[in-house]
Write a structure and sequence with these properties.
- It contains two helices and six strands; from the N terminus they run βββββαβα.
- It has helices at about 70-75, 85-100, and strands spanning about 15, 20-25, 30, 40-50, 55-65, 75-85.
- The protein has a six-stranded antiparallel sheet.
- A hairpin with a 2-residue loop joins β4 and β5.
Length: about 100
């Protein structure tokens, strides 16, 4: 029996969540590809201590256009504040999937 080779997948330099890249810069996390029409921006507004770790407590989630021709104020499509990074990623994934399906 011959083994079938799977096509080589390009390894992204960034971690991903549900197939889309996550890029962190300080307390800001971008979810999605800048090559797409939309991207999610998450800002960690506050943190709490869990043991010795700082864990995101309040996170602002924004669905944004990636088009640099649009003024920065007009780039934001939706915004919300969530308790914790898990809930923020959950809404971010739903918003981005719906927006990119348009």
């Amino acid at each position: 029996m011959s083994e079938q080779k799977k096509p080589a997948q390009k390894k992204s330099p960034f971690p991903s969540y549900k197939g889309k890249p996550l890029v962190r810069c300080g307390d800001t996390i971008y979810y999605g590809s800048m090559a797409d029409k939309y991207v999610i921006k998450m800002d960690v507004k506050s943190k709490k201590k869990v043991g010795e770790l700082d864990v995101a407590d309040k996170v602002t989630v924004q669905l944004m256009y990636t088009d640099p021709e649009i003024r920065s104020r007009k780039q934001i499509v939706k915004t919300s504040e969530k308790e914790g990074l898990y809930l923020a990623l959950d809404i971010a994934e739903a918003w981005l999937t719906r927006a990119l399906a348009e």
